[in-house]
Amino acid sequence: MRVVLLKWAFSLSSILLLTMPAHAQAPAVPEPDPHGAVLCSWHIYLMMKNWGDTCFPSERTEFKLALSEAIEKIEAFIMASSPATQRDIERARSKMSSDTAASRRRLGRDACTALDKERYRYSEAQGASAIRDDITKLLAVPRKPVMNPCL
Q1: CA angle, 18 as apex, 15 and 21 as ends, to 5°?
Q2: Model confidence over 92-106: pLDDT tens digits?
Q3: How far apart are CA 37 and CA 68, in angstroms?
């Protein structure tokens, strides 16, 4: 009996999927950009910069400088490759920052957790040259900046 019900459920779901209008079906997974998702990278670099600024505010390192440079280059790429303006970039940055802070408050987390420190130090250990190399590759080909697929 169980096998019959499973076969019936599978048949029904197949029929429903085949008869659903195209707009009601799940969208196809986007083809990965072989050069990387620029907006995703931007978001990650902003998070890393936030960890560094929050967890290690008095440190002035080559890595922090490389992060800031990378963010500036990504933002210039975004503005050159889309209708985004400097104001749009600033609003998006501000929203990301306030969303992160609100999320931390909801979860009762400190501004800088042990995991944030660990993630930052791990990234820092890769070196400033790794960031510069990654940015050079990421931005080498002009294209529309996309968020997904992220990583």
Answers
A1: 125
A2: 999 988 888 787 778
A3: 19
pLDDT in tens, 104-143: 778 777 778 889 899 999 999 999 999 999 999 999 999 9
Give CA–CA dist 27/20, Å, rounded: 13
Cα–Cα distances in Å, from 137 out to 103, 133, 140, 141? 32, 6, 5, 8
| Rounded CA separation 36/140 (Å) | 10
Peptide bond into 149 cis (omega under 30): yes
Triad 37, 41, 44: Cα angle to 5°: 145
Amino acid letter at 93?
Answer: R
**The pair of three-digit structure tokens given for residue 91, joined into one six-digit string:** 């609003």
Indicate whether this model's pTM tops 0.90: no
Output the CA angle 66-35-116, nearest 5 degrees: 45
Helix (H) or strand (E) holding 63: helix 62-81
